[in-house]
Amino acid sequence: KAGVTQTPRYLIKTRGQQVTLSCSPISGHRSVSWYQQTPGQGLQFLFEYFSETQRNKGNFPGRFSGRQFSNSRSEMNVSTLELGDSALYLCASSLRTLPSRSGANVLTFGAGSRLTVL
Amino acid sequence: DQQVKQNSPSLSVQEGRISILNCDYTNSMFDYFLWYKKYPAEGPTFLISISSIKDKNEDGRFTVFLNKSAKHLSLHIVPSQPGDSAVYFCAATSGSRLTFGEGTQLTVNP
User: Fold this and answer.
1) Fewest C-beta atoms under 10 Å: which of A95, B1, B4, B44?
2) pLDDT at site A101
3) Interchain contact, A92 vs B43, CB within 8 Å
4) pLDDT digits (tens, 9 = 90+) for A7-16
5) Per the CB < 8 Å rule, is B103 touching A42?
6) pLDDT in tens, A63-80
């Protein structure tokens, strides 16, 4: 089955602009999480959605927002872009949000959207 | 506050030898620990996990060891292959949130 699809793969913006990134999860997956990856910082958690509701939010300013649609597709938006927002934005999906008796809740990641802010 | 830390940004080993990647954590509430591998221009892919109630989990060439008293886990790859060259992320779960380390670049030389 198709994996997690993120669009666009690459984009360049200037400071002050806003950007919207899209994520289509694996069919049947209802949980979508977003992460920011910058050099030396690992993957920083942005937020998680399940059934169109934000379940969890990381320590990012209010300029970062997201939403999930009824078909589980998700978008994230960054307003008033800053140079430091340049990063790889990764979306991940999973069947559920919590571990179960069968094991850890494993996330499947997309290839990411590489944002460059000039 | 970095709750999951990978102190070695890079590791280089010879093909056929053992690769040992290390990870330390501070939150004793983590219930699962996972390792992901990431190639350039791709998203991270899941490798192996371990429950906090276990001390070892093995899957083929990959073994994860957990030392809860030291809040330390490690990933062993034996034997290492050139195709294993990638960035390896350690991660831990508490509830629904997955917390990642900074990553270690593994290079396996032929």
Assistant:
1) B1
2) 61
3) yes
4) 999 999 999 9
5) yes
6) 999 999 999 999 999 999
Chain B nearest CA to A50, separation (Å): 11
What SS3 class is residue B62? strand
Tokens for B36, please give them. 């992901």
So what's the pLDDT on residue B26?
A: 95
Residue-level pLDDT at B30: 92
Quick one: average pLDDT of A36-40?
A: 86
Distance CA(B65)–CA(B70), nearest Å, equals: 12
Edge to edge, the sheet with strand A5-7 lists A5-7, A19-24, A74-78, A64-68
CA distance A11 to B48: 32
Q: What is the CA angle A80-A65-A117, rounded to 5?
A: 35
The DSSP code for A18 is -
B57: tokens are 């989990």
Q: What whole-number distance in Å separates Cα of residue A107 and Cα of residue A91? A: 9
Q: Where are the alpha helices (DSSP H) in chain B?
A: none
| pLDDT tens-digit series, residues A74-114 | 999 999 999 999 999 999 999 876 666 667 788 999 999 99
User: Which one, of A41, A44, A42, A18, lies nearest residue A33 by Cα?
Assistant: A44
Residues of chain A contacting B34 with CB distance shorter than 8 Å: 104, 106
The H helix count followed by the E strand count for chain B is 0, 11
Q: Tokens for B32, please give them.
A: 């699962």
A10-13 and A19-24 beta bridge pairing: unpaired
